[in-house]
Structure formats: C-alpha cells, structure tokens
Amino acid sequence: MGFSCMPGVEADGSGGALAMTDGISVAAIGSCRVMSSDSRPSLEYRPFLDGLRALAVILVFVFHAAGPALPGGFIGVDVFFVLSGYLITRVILTQMDARPGFGFADFYARRARRLLPAMFLLVAAVAVREAVWGSILDAATRAREIVATLLYVSNWNFIIQADDYFAAAGEASPLRHTWSLAVEEQFYIVFPVLIVGAVLVARQRRWFPLFVLTTLATVSFVLMVALFEPGNVVRVYFGTDTRAFQLLIGAAAGYVLHVSGINAARLAAPLRSMLGWAALASLGLLVVLAATMSGRSEVYFRGGALIVAIAAIIVVVGTDLSPSSLASRVLSWRPAVLLGVVSYGFYLWHWPIILWVSAPEGASFLERRVVNGAQFALTVLISVGSYYLLEQPIRQRRGAFGVLSPRWSVALGLAASVFLAVALGNAVAPQAAPVAASPSEVELLFTSEPEMSDRTPLLDQRDQSNEPGPVGGGEESTEALDLEQVAVAALADKSYEACPENPRPCVKYEPDADPDTPTVVLLGDSTAQAYDPALKLLAERYEFRYVQAAVGGCPISHRLLATGVDGELHKESNFMCFEQIPLIYEEVEERWDPDLYIATSWNETNSHVEGDVLVESGTPEHYVAVQEALDDVVSSLIDGSRFAFIHVLPPGPSVECLETDGPTEPRCQRPVTPDSGEKGYNAIFDLLAAESPEVVSVRLDDVVCADAVCPLMMDGIVIRYDGGHLTATASRALGPVIADRLRLVGIDLADLG
Length: 753
Hints:
By secondary structure, this protein is an alpha/beta fold. The protein has 26 helices and 15 strands.
C-alpha cells in the first residue's frame, strides 16, 4: 500500500451496505489517497449487515418493551456503534482511493440528507404530542430535550439532567433514546478529520492511523472503567468519551481490512470457514449477553461493554469475509434484511410508540405481549412510510432537493435544526404570562425566602382554622392571578437537590470546621430530600452541621428492594440502593459521628422484593418486613445518636390540576382516604419510637392536610408541585414547625451537643 496524489474516479458509494451505517454515503476524501497494492474491497451490497442491524434494533425494542425478558437488550446500541465505526471507515478510505480532494461539504451534506429529515419528523411529532397531551410538570424538561436532540447533544443533556437510562419507562423522556444518535453524530463530525489527518501524517507509515485509533479506543475504555460509579451509571453510560471506544474498535477493524487488501476472494477456504464459525459463535454470545447482562452491573462497565464490542466486530468481519457462512445466511434472512433497511426509522420511532401505546395498568402477561406486538407492527409501519416517502426522496435528491449543492444542503440542515430547536422548544415550554393584577404574594413567595420566625404566616393561619387558608393572601385571590404562571413558578421551585457526587453524602451547611459541631443527617429518598431547604434554614439558625445522605428512589431500609408500580420483579432498578446505602451509612458514621438522624421515605410504602419473593405493600407480611428492616437500620445507627422519623405525607394534588381547575376547586383539593397507603407505615415509625427512648416520630400531615384534605395551595404557597415533593418555599415554611415538633418530643435543635 502507498499514497498517491494522482487524480482518480469518484466513487459515490450510495446504496451499498458498506455505505450505510444509517445509510452513510460518502464522497471522495483527501487530496492524497490511500492505495492498496492489491485489489481494493468493493462496495457491493452486503445483506447480512442489514440483518445485523435488524438484530440490533430487535434487541433494543424487546429491552424497552419487555425489559425483564431481555435485561441486556440495550447492547443492540453497542452493536450499532461498532458497525458504524467499521462502515464509515471503509467508506472513507475507499473514497480516498477513488479520487483526490476531500469533499467535507459533500460528506456532511450526505449525512444531513440521510439523518435530519426523519429526525425532524420525529421531534415534531413529540413536540405536538407534548404540547397537546403532555404534563405541565414535564414541559420545561421536554423543551430542553427537543433543543438538545436537534443539536445532537442529547446525551450530554441527559447527563446534566441525571436521567437514568435504566429507570422505569413511566418516568422516561420520549427522546431518551436519541442519546445514541447524538454520540454517533458527534463521532461523524470529528472522525473524518481524524482519519484523513492520520493518513496524511502517516505518509508511508501505513499502520500509524491504526495506532491512533487503538490508542484513542484504549483511552476511551479506560475512562469508562475509571468514571464508573456503582449505582450512578448516567455519566459513564451516556458520555461520548466513554462510548467512543466501541466506534473506534469498528473503525480500527475497518482500517486493517482496507489497507491490507483482505477480502473473501483472497482467503483460503479453511480460513473463511473458521471466520464464519467465529462469527456464528460471537452472534450466539451477543444473544446470551442480551439475555443475561444488566446495564447497572459492574460487569458491563468494567469489561462487559468491551466484550460486546469485540463480539460484534467478529460478527461483522467474519460475515464480511465469509459471505457464504451459516452466520451470513442467518443474517441474510429476507425479513431481517428488510427490517435492517429501515432500521434507522425503526429505532427513531420505537421508543415513543412504546411510551404512547402502552398496556393498561393491571394488564395480564398475555395482554402486555399483545400490546408489544401492536407496538412492533406500528413502528414498522411508520418506519417504512418514513423511509420511502420522506428519507429516500431527500437522500436521492429527487425533485427540488436535487438542485441543492452540498454546501447549501449542510447550511440548510443546520439552519433547519436551529430553527426547529427554537420553534418546537418554545411550543412545548410553559410560557409565563403577565400577572393579571399587581405583583402577588405568589410571585413574592417564589422569588424570596420567607422570614425566619417561630411561626410563619402559613402555619399561623393553619393554627387558627382547620379550613384551607385563603390563597394569595390579603384581599388578593388566585382568580386575579395567571394560574399558568403559578404552575411554572412552582415547577421552578423544586426542593430536593441531590449531592454533587450522588449517591455519596455531602455537607449542605457547616457553620465552622470545629469537629465538635453538632451534626444532623438526613436519610431517605427524594421525599426526604424535599426537606433539604427546611434543614438548611434550621442549620443556619441553630448552628449545626447539616449532612444530606438521602438518595432518590431508595428506602431507608436498604435491605428491601423497591419494585415498580406494576409489581414486577425489577430488582436491578433498585439494586443501587441495596448495594450503596449500607456504604453511605458507614461513611456518615465514620466521618461525622452524627448527633441526630432525620428520616422519611415514600419508598417504604412500595411493594418490595426480599430474596426472590415479591412482598406486596399493605399486607401483614410487608408491614412485618418493613418494621424488621427499619429496626435493623435504626439499631445500627443510634449508638450515641438520636433518630427522628418524619411521617410520610398523604398524596396531594399536583400543579397539573391548574390546567382545568382553580386552586380551591375539587381537583386541587385531594381528600385523605381512610385506607391511605402511608398510614400503616407511619404507625411503624410510631411503634419504633415507642420501643426506644432514642427514637422519636413526628407528623406534619395535620399542617399540610388539615381536616383530611390536602390542598394544592395554602396562603399563596404551592405545597407540593407533583403531589409528593414539597416546593422549596413550602419546605422552608415548614422548617419552624419541624423544630417545634422535635422540641415537643425531647429533641432541641438549639442544644444538640
């Protein structure tokens, strides 16, 4: 192999399987070109590579639609990464052989024509759906996600949002799956410059680019291992830097095959046979890993992802060099090939459809599988329509699209992305309209902290009457306010804030560095974290060190694994709690030797898995299990410390009720039912307090839900924006009553030492 600056013939590459990672087709690249001393690999169609795409999207679909059936199906994305790196490298190097002059504009224009139209259609559909039927609770988040998706940075946006890819579907963004498209597009932007630059620098050192690719892949894999934190996989799973090694492994293999001139025709039959069997074995390994490996496990992030990438590239290379092998024939099965052709659209649409077309709560196993079949069929139908009616006409530059030059195609694609990001983001985002009257108490409450006193206006009015206090204060009522503004303000006033290195604990307030300063530690889940503003305020007043050790989604009693609302055994969804909470408690005791623990958790009231048995909430067995588990925790922590439970609050209304009702109307006033689920677990808190002089239990429901009714608002304050979590303003207003209630049961925050 050598390098030449002689003119050559342009190779389009469009339509061949080698030219389709998502339908990649690349123009000639480079002023100097790579020349193989032997015949170059051709770009003829490889149907088995489309079959491999089909397998990858099916794995992902089953993982998303019926997770417990295929816990490792997410590795289909890994297969896409490897295949993309392999194919784009083969295409670029073949184009460099074909002609001088690297057409960056042509390359990126082809990418824009291939990827953007279908993406625009999907994002527009999501924006319309969210604007019409979406929850106001999610509106601001969805707007950010739309912008990030259209700018291909959604993976980093999900890292910032701490959006767990493996969280329950009910909590998921309809654009969550676009993280992988962002990673690939970021790679496509940088990689052509990288590989062309390496080739030009290499001159006669034809293996120098391979050294660059393998070095970068090694660095990326080391980053994945180094940045992995058990129980907090968001950063390492979504990061471009921690994922690039899979794309680079594919690229390295593609480079080796191209520059060596190896192809099926030049290999001896025994070697082709061996590669074919290796590909079949690796294909089987991928299926086994998809059926057994968890995305939260240490195994995946400390070597499993590398094994997946190696197995995938063996399948790719083995089938490419042994096209008549059994593995190639299996992957060339006609239905699989047809699905592979539309795999890009299938991947785009499958996840929103799974979220939007779901089985009703309480559906049987068979009913859920029927719904999964409908989801699959609908996804195929939409992806086929998108491919033939939208993607192909634009990609093949039919009609008006044919007059655009590469530079104009790129410019138009960028302009459309920015325009749609702004337009659709604004369409979905909640808009704060002007206040109908003079600046209201609501506005003031959400822009300034309440005065610190033993009694706040909120609690004064609740003490004077059992009826919900007037909303808005004074003569002003919420009828004079814009209710949408109230909702937007409440959503921006969220109270819970995890520690920077969640799930590790952190100091939220420390009056001084004196090791003898009294320490108060908060334990529990996100409903405990909702008391964070109250405890920071109390810490400032009473001069104690405040440490937050609460972890969203985790029960206090870590021995119990919380399940989803459907009761399925999603042990892995809560395994981080089981693994990390004991370590957190150990760290808290060793570092701060707390004087007081304050704890609450809605997760105590969920169904749990103990061993391999599902224990349903509200049953005698569950009450016994929770009591025993809590007793174990409290007994291990109260050696020289006090322990205070705060009763779990009854569920209340969310700000969504303001879409149709005013704050004093029925939808915004939620009654507490006699069988309200938290009551039995609050009784356990009281029982543990009665059994030990070091343990106390306090209630706040008589303040927040007086007369067995939980209002959305009291005295101009939205209490809980989503029905479960306090707003920061309400949390601060409740701070003094928490101090009072603790004082009544023998814990004076002014005298903890």
